[in-house]
Design brief:
The chain has four helices and five strands, in the order E-E-E-E-E-H-H-H-H. By secondary structure, it is of the alpha+beta class. It starts with a strand and ends in a 7-residue tail after the last helix.
């Protein structure tokens, strides 16, 4: 059994391979493997080699960009989950409708009842709370965008002050 590494994508490595199943045109068979991370392997002139520092930087920057996208999506999802746990969509729609009724009454010069005043306060509290969660989310996303270290991005803890 042998080690085979794909020539197009050297990250594809098969240990204990039955070499007749892997054509030499497409696979390095028992190659001399450079002392580097697999992500920095490249086939150059049909030889398995280590990337140049410039190429490594490109790979690292792509990984960082991907990690940022993933972490920001996680932050947005967490914010949505926090908001919907407290104010499900149906409740937000109901409050929006109730708020429109209250606003119409105010615009028409009417006086709010005690119940309408209490509802208005609840609606304002909901809006302020959701805005607070969104602001925290925006702040975390800005943090992620400012990072240029993969492990820092991956280790970033998502937490909301409710």
């Amino acid at each position: 059994m042998s080690i085979v590494i794909n020539k197009i994508n050297p990250r594809i490595r098969i240990d204990n391979a039955h070499t007749p199943d892997y054509p030499a045109a497409d696979w390095h068979i028992n190659p001399q493997i450079p002392e580097c991370q697999d992500k920095y392997l490249i086939t150059y002139n049909d030889v398995l080699s280590e990337m140049t520092d410039a190429d490594k930087l490109i790979i690292d920057n792509l990984e960082i960009a991907d990690a940022k996208k993933i972490k920001i999506a996680e932050i947005k999802q967490a914010a949505q989950s926090v908001i919907l746990a407290t104010y499900p969509e149906w409740k937000q729609r109901n409050y929006t409708g109730r708020g429109m009724d209250i606003l119409a009454k105010i615009v028409e010069g009417g006086t709010l009842t005690a119940d309408e005043t209490a509802d208005r306060q609840q609606i304002e509290n909901m809006g302020a709370w959701i805005f607070s969660i969104r602001s925290q989310s925006d702040s975390m996303e800005a943090d992620i965008e400012s990072f240029n270290n993969l492990s820092t991005i991956k280790a970033y803890s998502i937490a909301y002050n409710e």
